[in-house]
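INPUT
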Amino acid sequence: MAYYSTSQFKNGLKLMLDGNPCSIISNEIRKPGKGQASNKVKFKDLITGKTLEKTFKSGESLEGADVMELDMQYLYNDGNEWNFMDPNTFDQFTINDSNMDDVRGYLVEQDMCVVTLWNNNPISVAPPNHVLLEVVDTDPGLKGDTAGTGGKPATMNTGVVVQVPLFISIGEKVKVDTRTNEYAGRT
Amino acid sequence: MRQALIKKAKLLEKIRAFFDHQNVLEVQTSYLLTHPTTDVYIDSISMQVNKDIAIQSKYLHTSPELEMKKLLANGSGDIYQICQVFRDNEQGSENFNEFTMLEYYRLGFDIHQLMDDVSHLFSVLGFTQEITKFSYAQAFSTFANIDILNSDFNALKKIAKSHDLCTDFEWIEDLQILMFTDLVEPKLAQYPLCFIYDYPSEQSALARIEGRISHRFELYLSGIEVANGYDELQYVSEYQQVFAQENQRRFELGKTAFAQNLDFFQQLQNPLPQCAGVAIGVDRLFSQIDQI
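OUTPUT
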């Protein structure tokens, strides 16, 4: 795998840090009047999702991480594993249920999403920004309240709970913004 | 556009009036030199000239320091210069290949007198806020709880590791500087004007050493370094020793080492008068004035 020197650091570059693949979030170069330049770098650990900060002297190199982001179709889950398919190659990938905590409420079968592969193994999934979910449980709506002034919690078919306007009733499909977990309209 | 130009011109006028008032003489020295700087982490921009006659390498000055010291050694008295300086391989949001430098020397001053004089200059330019002063050791103990003057390379590496800092340095001063940048400098942002003085002897550069410390200072405006002052070395043998060590280090780092600056040594046959000098980054200074 290639090595990258600090002068090649840029946002989004994927590097190996303490054994985990990480993505650069920010890279600040400092050059004191007397003395060596250094880089203060913020990373996102692609396995744990945590943000970390490290300082390097300029010129230091880190090993690149073999990380790819591919558009894949979500097929189904069997309770233990979630299955995805690369529509170009028809290759299928599985992710363990325990790694799906942040996203399982937004994955709808057949939807396209972005799967991150490290050394050809999937490590994370990003759902589309908006998904269509069906309301399976919520308090009865108030007839005539179409202005959407108030709100109430509604449980979706995927299990996620979203604040929706009062006029939404069970069985309706609503658009949800997966980045904010907010109601984004009716179909 | 014209408003900004007028503002800058007025500030330069104020700087010149400040020095004129104190009988400090404005000088101009050569920008194009036959010798590059030997500073380990500053690179001169080089060029080939006289291609049609007898090809020769020349270098843009990275600071007017040595040229001004030739004048001082030959009886110029107090002098100042405002000039463009040029540096290669600069990186970072506050660093550029070309910037404006104000450099001045005061005979008979020590660094504390020079810090007072710099404070006076800054107040004339509009920085009237309270001035804070920390010795380098005080700053480290106050903001990072580190005894910097009594920590050897291994001890410092251990502390740096605990802060997730890089420790892979050849020389202790590089690690001191990194730790200062990361652990102390961010805390200086709370002070409008803050002097740091008495650096560890390892970071003496061209400043006079006394025991564990070198008589140097830096001035930070809200955490941004704008000035670097020294109690200047006087004797040619001291300069020869520093340049030889810098060249040796450049060599060890795989950078180009350079021929001795014999002309400078020649001009320092008479030692420099005891003096203190300071370099001030004028562009950074002006950008800070906009914020006050």
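end of record. DSSP finds no helices and 16 strands in chain A.
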